[in-house]
């Protein structure tokens, strides 16, 4: 059950929903759960959640004039300009709490190949969870 909660929390945290997976990861580390499995499951869930954002950006951009669309035109424009300026390597920063979700959405809009997206986003998110887990293990 612990691993499912980690996966769901990490997946939700990577989407446009307001989730924070660090708390679930820290709590799971206080149980008998394996830190390696926690890292792997959190990394996988968070990366797959980012793929949802990529898919939304890739296939729903033509709805950008609708009220329910998650980003305003000026936000999209700024995100695209930033992405064009710094390139796909910015996807290594998709783990950031502010702007990370927008980056993954913009990557879909900009039609970054899915394999490259998963590689860069997965690497950045996996490193982040490694730091979180190591920090929690050191402190507690």
Automatic annotation (TrEMBL):
Alphabetized Pfam families for the sequence: VTT_dom
One GO cellular component term noted in the UniProt record for this chain: plasma membrane
Domain VTT, first and last residues per copy: 25-134
Keywords, ordered alphabetically: Membrane, Transmembrane, Transmembrane helix
Membrane-spanning ranges: 36-61, 82-108, 114-137
Listed name of the protein: Membrane protein YqaA with SNARE-associated domain
